[in-house]
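Aim 2 progress update. The chain analyzed this quarter is reproduced below.
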Amino acid sequence: TKEGLAMLGILTGEEYESLAAQTRLISGMIRDELARFGCELYDIKLEFGRCNGEVRLIDEISGGNMRVFKDGKSIEPMEITRIVTGD
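Predicted structure tokens:
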């Protein structure tokens, strides 16, 4: 929770709010992009860290970091890449 992370000194309340806003923005962008290909983002793992004193996304975004469905069926990570890139 926001309070637990602040109590442990991991994130300030302001940093938590920044992380939450970034998560909503990034996830929404990915959801919308996948929807263009008839795919549904089910869940995603984003990794954040500190860079120059700011909390930022520090890991790549790839098919291996998310679960995506198309026509009610789960899509393998490499298939997500093929669908999006057209390869």
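The mean pLDDT is 93. Helices lie at 2-7, 13-35, 77-85. These observations will guide the mutagenesis experiments scheduled for the next reporting period.
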